[in-house]
Amino acid sequence: MSKTITVLPGDGIGPEVTSAAIRVLKHLFERFNHDVRFVEKRIGGAAIDADGTPLPQDTIDQCRLSDAILLGAVGGPKWDRQSMEVRPEQGLLGIRKAMGLFANLRPVQAFAPLIDASPLKRAYVEKVDFIIVRELTGGLYFGKPSERRGERREQVVDTLAYSESEIERVVEKAFRLAEKRRKKLTSVDKANVLESSRMWREVVNRVAKRHPDVAVSHMLVDSTAMQFIINPSQFDVIVTENMFGDILSDEASVITGSLGMLPSASLRTDKVGLYEPVHGSAPDIAGQGKANPLATILSAAFLLRYSLDMDQEAALIEAAVQEVLERGYHTPDLKVDTGDSKPVDTAGMTDQVIAIIDEKRRSMAEKG
Ligand code: IPM
Ligand code: MG
User: Fold this and answer.
1) Which of 66, 131, 259, 349 has CB 3.0 to 4.6 Å from 6, enough for a Cys bridge?
2) Do residues 203 and 171 touch, judged by C-beta distance below 8 A?
3) Distance (Å) from CA 89 to ligand 1 centroid
4) Which pLDDT tens digit goes with each residue over 169-186?
């Protein structure tokens, strides 16, 4: 049966990094004889310019017909002064919500050749390997009311709202992930202040009973921000509210020394998912062919694993990305710690990843 991937390149470097990832995917599909179709649609600033809205209905309709979505990035100075409804970011929030992608997975893992670029001590960073599960379709981002009030509009309200079931489904996902890893789950909240956090804790403790082999702890969000710097290797799986997860995942991204390396997956209960790099649209280097495509290529590996059940192909991509760094290849954003530095652009990096995939595939075939 043929599968469909919808590609949403978006703005800035989005089109460059998504086309790099598509090249890698097409190469693998050809080699492994998979029948997968790509359909491209607009989102973000590109859609505002062409369609007058950051999330055209046609884009939503196509995503609903797809097995997976690969997204580049949205936003840029061109649209920064627009009113809230016609900002590129609304396209991203809108597609996550429209597709019901409630669990956002953001792994934080150190790549050995990049560790010296981390602001933290090498001894800590080497051992970092955790994943943030951010609730993505509720909480402070989507709660109503969210508006200006008063005669002079001198008052404002945002709402942090959750139902038990919204918390339960994302917490359940986090527990299942922990079961496949080091079996440690940290639930992050602000239960010393917020009622929503107290309910969040209750739900976590209830779900924990179904997963007796996972060690659960609760940590306050302010303290977690501190622990990320003091001792980041203590974490395995973290689960938290939408806004807390947004903030913590940016903090976590610098631990490993390379924001340009981090993929993400936004999932729901079935296999459909949206995959995007954690970095933004980098308008300052857009169109110059020098963007680092590796976070998007790693997001494509997630897509293969979570949406298309192609574990072997996903592992090949991940091994190739590791290897490309070890061989010293790097785009201008990466500080690689090997004697043999080989600067490349977006296309050059993609070529190398593809070449290494073929090498690895051949040696696998020879070993039988
Ligand atoms: C992210 C981004 C988005 C978010 C913005 C662009 C709306 O910061 O994916 O973390 O806040 O979710
Ligand atoms: Mg963010």
Assistant:
1) 66
2) yes
3) 7
4) 999 999 999 999 999 999
Q: Does one domain contain both 96 and 109?
A: no
Indicate if 95 and 147 belong to the same structural domain: no
- The ligand placed nearest to the CA atom of residue 251 is 2
Please list every protein residue whose CB sits less than 6 Å from any atom of ligand 1. Answer: 89, 92-93, 246
Instruction: Determine which residue's CA is closest to atom 6 belonging to ligand 1.
Output: 89
Question: pLDDT per residue over 253-305, tens digit each?
Answer: 999 888 889 999 999 999 999 999 999 999 999 999 999 999 999 999 999 99
Centre of ligand 1 from the C-alpha of residue 209, in Å: 32
What is the residue-averaged pLDDT of the chain?
A: 96
Phi-psi region of 43 (alpha: psi -120 to 50; beta: other; left: phi over 0): beta
**What's the CATH number where 209 sits?**
3.40.718.10
Q: Both 205 and 163 in a single domain?
A: yes
* Nearest CA among 107, 13, 347, 28 for reference residue 5: 28
Domain-ending residue, one of 213, 248, 263:
263
C-alpha 278 – ligand 2 centre gap (Å) = 8
Tokens of 214: 């996972």
Q: What is the pTM of this model?
A: 0.96
CB–CB of 338/328 below 8 Å?
yes
pLDDT in tens, 14-49: 999 999 999 999 999 999 999 999 999 999 999 999
Q: Do 129 and 252 fall within a single domain? A: yes
Residue 242 CA, closest ligand 1 atom number: 12
Q: What is the mean pLDDT of the segment spanning 221-233?
A: 97
Instruction: List the one residue out of 293, 285, 287 whose CA is nearest residue 348.
Output: 293
Ligand 1, atom 12, lies closest to the CA of: 246
Q: Which residues are catalytic?
A: 141, 190, 222, 246, 250
Cβ distance 24 to 353 under 8 Å? Answer: yes
Nearest ligand, measured from the Cα of 280: 1
Q: What residue numbers bound the domain in which 75 lies? A: 1-102+268-368
What is the atom index within ligand 1 of the atom nearest the CA of 89?
7
Report the pLDDT value the prediction gives residue 368, as an integer from 0 to 100.
66
Query: What is the reported pLDDT for 259?
Result: 84
Among 223, 246, 263, identify where a domain stops.
263
